[in-house]
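Technical note accompanying the year-one report. For the benefit of new consortium partners, we illustrate the data format agreed upon in the data management plan: each record pairs a sequence with a structure-token string. No post-processing was applied to the example shown here.
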Amino acid sequence: MRMLHTMLRVGNLEESIKFYCDLLGMKLLRQKDYPGGEFTLAFVGYGDEADCTVLELTYNWGVDSYDLGNAYGHIAIEVDDIYKTCNDIKSRGGTVTREPGPMKHGSTVIAFIQDPNGYKIELIQGGSQGWADRSQPAMAGQSS
């Protein structure tokens, strides 16, 4: 098994595609209208869907906002230079809701940004997570 995608409902598909592609450097992988169901799906990501987990942006025609609720947490993206990335995002009109710095009670360097729909995205400085060996992920049911 593998993770395929995470779906986010968006109120303005063009604005959301622009945010994820132009601001965060993802690529629009595919987009399709479903007139019978009155919705459009757009898939964005950093690599081909055959190899990478992606985001599915769902626009339900005529719906321009959603109650995000309190169960959703965030999407996490690793970046090479968190300070430069946050400065670039701010200079291009993006919203940084938590400036870069060590996480509370830890040493991982994080920041948070917000997409046009209010979804939170955690940026994590590459190499600051403290994982012992990223090349050997633990499998479900395996003890460490």
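Partners are asked to follow this layout when depositing records. The radius of gyration is 17 Å.
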